[in-house]
Structure formats: structure tokens, C-alpha cells
Amino acid sequence: NMSKYSALSRAQLSFEYLHTNSTTHEFLFGALAELLDNSRDAAATKVNIFTVHREDLRGSCMLCFLDDGDGMDPEEISSVMKFGSSCKKSGESNMIGQYGNGLKSGSMRIGKDFVLFTKKESTMSCLMLSRTFHETENLNEVIVPMPSWNRQTRLPLPTVD
Q1: Residue 155 carries which DSSP code?
Q2: Which of 7, 80, 100, 155 has its CA 20 to 30 A from that of 107?
Q3: How far, CA to CA in Å, does 101 sit from each of 18, 106, 136?
Q4: Using CA atoms, how far apart are residues 145 and 161, in angstroms rounded to an integer?
């Protein structure tokens, strides 16, 4: 029921926080482990980690994680970008990630740009967290595009709030 508060100023997540938050990982291996933990928590039985070398990419390299986990629907992918929000919180949970920060901090420690593709049931979604985009567009507030499509028709789905 946020509409009754629309006239109030809101706290915003500044662009600089993306880098600041990534420094919680002193070592690169901890950041890589965060991304692997997400595959494990999604019940993945296979995880393939590989690099793609392309001269048109900054740094000429892309690090890829491909797993056979459960995937996420549009609502779940939207929840992933909320700092401190986790659908994994449960007293009985044996999941590793429960604090709602690892994907964001780990990915931004590894590189300046993160793209996640996922599918679940009849949907496909993409999440784009990019410090390059924010720098190029001179944005101070974090903006994360998260388009979703119907897997069969390939038509876009309405935005999830």
C-alpha cells in the first residue's frame, strides 16, 4: 500500500553502493563461492563454469556459470535484487544463502557487469546489473532492468513490482 506514501522522499540505493557492497568479499574466491552457492541452493546437480573470450568485451573475457537448477520466475527474479530480501529464510532451511546479498556483492566483486538468464515453468527472465551502464548514463540511483517473456510465445510479460 505504498501509494499513500508516494509524496514522501524515499531512501535510494546509490550507484556507489554497488562497489562498496562488493568489497565485503576480501578475496575473489569468496565472490565466486557466492555464485556457486546460489546454484546449490537452486538444487542444481550440474554447474559448468567457463570463460568466453571476445575482443569486443571490456577485458576481452566473460565468466559464465551455467547450471541445471530450479530457475526463477519473474517475481523471484525481482526479489533477488532487493537487498536483504531472501526467499531462502527458514528455520528448517539447509540453504547456504539466506541474507539476500550474495548475488549482488559477489557479482560486483567479480566484474562491473552481471547478466543473469533464468527460466521457470512458462517464463524466461533476464536481470542486468551493470556498473558500466550507470557510469555511461551518469546515473546516481541503481536501476536494474529485469524483462521477462512467455517461453512459448516469446511475448513480453508485464513488469513485476
Answers
A1: P
A2: 155
A3: 11, 8, 25
A4: 12
For residues 149 and 124, give the distance between their C-alpha atoms in angstroms, rounded to a whole number.
Answer: 5
pTM score, two decimals? 0.80
Picking from 124, 101, 99, 126, the residue whose alpha carbon sits closest to that of residue 114 is 126
Calculate the CA 73 to chain-centre distance: 13
Nearest CA among 109, 88, 139 for reference residue 28: 109
Residue showing cell 566473460: 62
> Taking the CB of residue 124, how many other CB atoms lie within 10 A of it?
19
pLDDT digits (tens, 9 = 90+) for 110-145: 999 999 999 999 999 999 999 999 899 998 888 889
